[in-house]
Design goal:
- The chain is α/β, with parallel strands linked by helices and 138 residues long.
- It has a single domain, classed as Rossmann fold.
- The chain is built from 4 helices and 7 strands; from the N terminus they run E-H-E-H-E-E-H-H-E-E-E.
- It has a 7-stranded mixed beta sheet, covered by helices on one side.
Length: 138
Amino acid sequence: MNETVHFDLETIDDVAKLLLKNFKTKTVLFYGDMGVGKTTLISALLKALGGTEKATSPTFSIVNEYKIKDDIVYHFDFYRINDLEEALDLGIEEYFYSKHWIFIEWPEKISPFLPNKVDKVHLRLNKNNFRALKLSVY
């Protein structure tokens, strides 16, 4: 999946399935401006992974845990952290070794701790509420 994918909310479930087929790891970083739809896409990914819960932004809790079919997803939002110590206090490194799915919004805030092998989803909002998505795999 080297090309940019354009989608709207009506086709987001198909995009989630396409992403899952192309991910090389279970650690996925989501890049994009505030309001671009990172949490909405993560919610579609949860559904595609067999989850029944809708993702909510963990902006204040920093991490949400979702049970999916035969696994767990840890969904992080590091937008509000002020320093790297907060991520360490949360035990971020243990999450990376957990072998579960890890979805991270605002990963640039913890870049020194990120593993080398990750998938990166870059989102941007285009005209008419369409989104552009680019996937980079390690």
